[in-house]
Specification:
The N and C termini lie far apart (38 Å). By secondary structure, this protein is α/β, with parallel strands linked by helices. Strands 6-7-8-3-9-10 form a six-stranded mixed β-sheet. The protein has nine helices and ten strands. The radius of gyration is 18 Å and the shape is globular.
Length: 246
Amino acid sequence: MKEVVISVKEISKVFGDFTAVDKISFEVRKGEIFGFLGANGAGKTTAMRMLCGLSFPSCGSGTVAGFDIMKQSEEIKRHIGYMSQRFSLYNNLTVWENIRLFAGIYGLSKQETKSRAENIFKQLDFEKERNTLVASLPLGWKQKLSFAIATIHKPKIVFLDEPTGGVDPITRRQFWEMIYQASNEGTTIFITTHYMDEAEYCSRVSIMVDGQIRALDTPSNLKKLYNAESMDEVFRRLAREAKRGE
């Protein structure tokens, strides 16, 4: 059985009298593509922030990449990759400058940076875009570059927060090819998405409702359990149970 790279036990996050995340527990293994779903206000973003070392749980315990989420948040940040739809790259820097900047943040040497940058240029067919400002790249190109940079330090886990929002179907397919390649090489993918067809591509999927995980299994098993033809149908059925708003 593959190594457990994320393990959380009854973690909660409370803001005053509001419980954003309510005693959730789960494990994710090496190389899995783990879909983390939930409607707006379900608590998934708050949960992801705790796993990324950006926020501490109010209670509970857990580890990410072997590091304690309560005590070793800085170590977690150094050993994971993170990509957001909202912010991943600096638009006023060139492609090469972005690569060099993030490689430095992740602690890569100049030689490692140069070698892995060349791999990125080749993989993405970006040789001619080396000195292009990121601001001038199409959105789909930005997202593929963002993913490549998020994995430049070869992290155990990459957290992807709605990475394909707003991109065209062809680019989404190409992006998922990159995800599958990383997964096959042993990188664990932890992804949130609003596209339910993408949930079908995941190894397993969890669905949060009102701060709790209401379902967690493979897409095929969840569809059988809820007698549904698609993950969209499963998601809608569970989301209707929500009592709190966004």
